[in-house]
Amino acid sequence: MAALLEVEGLIKSFGSVRAVNQASFTVQHNSITALIGPNGSGKTTLFNLITGYLPPDQGRVRFAGRDITGVDAGRLYRRGLSRTFQQARVFPQLTVQENLTVAAGYSWGQLFGRRMSKADRQRVGQLLEEFRMAHVADLFASELSYGQRKLLEFAAVLMSSPSLILLDEPTAGVNPVMIETMEHHIRDRYAAGITFLIVEHDMNFVMRLCDPVIVLDQGREIFAGTPSDVQSNPLVLDAYLGG
């Protein structure tokens, strides 16, 4: 079976700085793959190229066997490729429940007109229960803690029933209890057949959750392997420690 996501020779420059430099790797079906690397190694730029927020200068991206290079983020979301961001992107002026409703693809008019299908209403209710957010369903997103906003963003991407989710630093800035909660939800969704590609700086989180681990340095893959292989590889140690 072909890989779910195939990245081939991606290049992206900003002026004289080449942020992504011939990056190539694959993400297999039903895996939790980590993408790690030192600061400035091109991880978030690579996420933006994959998910249609930036066009590549060169290279191709294939998802589920189809070329998606340069396809806009909205179309990819509807095809089953979703993502989160380093800073949680939610609608602060909408309630928690309304954020999930919008994520289901409803317009503002439909949102406030309450014209939702029964299936989508059930889906919203199910996610509120699963993420233990039913008690804050009517709060504005602006009233949530930072960790709760990150959970809400995660729940919102699930409204599209994705097959691949890219998580950009899901544990950044949250407390240890919220990290455990996030890990629990990732494991549950993985068990249900969803594939993950995760950028993360918390190496304990990566080492207990992800396999394989892909290592970037200066915009390109320098190593990929199991967590134990990554921890002992001299190329990886050199990239992080600087020689």
Notes on the structure:
α3 runs parallel beside α6. This protein is of the alpha/beta class and 243 residues long. It has a six-stranded mixed β-sheet, sandwiched between helices. It has a four-stranded antiparallel β-sheet with strand order 2-1-4-5, with helices on one face. It is 37% helix and 24% strand. β7, α7 and β8 form a beta-alpha-beta unit. The protein folds into two domains: 162 residues, P-loop containing nucleotide triphosphate hydrolases (Rossmann fold, 3-Layer(aba) Sandwich), CATH 3.40.50; 71 residues, no CATH class. The longest helix is centred in the last third of the chain and has 16 residues.
Structure at a glance:
By secondary structure, the chain is of the alpha/beta class. It is built from 10 helices and 10 strands.
List the main descriptive attributes of the protein structure presented here:
243 residues; alpha/beta; Rossmann fold; 2 domains; six-stranded mixed sheet; four-stranded antiparallel sheet; 10 strands; 24% strand; globular
In the CATH scheme, the class of the largest domain would be Alpha Beta
Structural class assignment:
alpha/beta
Q: Tell me the strand order in the biggest sheet.
A: 6-7-8-3-9-10
CATH topology of the largest domain: the name is Rossmann fold
Q: Work out the strand percent.
A: 15-25%
- Span between termini: 39 Å
The overall average pLDDT, rounded, is 90
Taken in chain order, the helices and strands follow as EEEHEEHEHHHHEHEHEEHH
What would you say the CATH architecture of the largest domain is? Answer: 3-Layer(aba) Sandwich
Q: What summary fits the major beta sheet? A: 6 strands, mixed
CATH superfamily of the largest domain: P-loop containing nucleotide triphosphate hydrolases
Helical coverage, percent range: 25-40%
Rg for CA atoms: 18 Å
Number of strands: 10
Instruction: Give the low-confidence spans.
Output: none
- Individual helix count: 10
User: How many structural domains does the protein architecture include?
Assistant: 2
Q: What does the overall shape look like?
A: globular
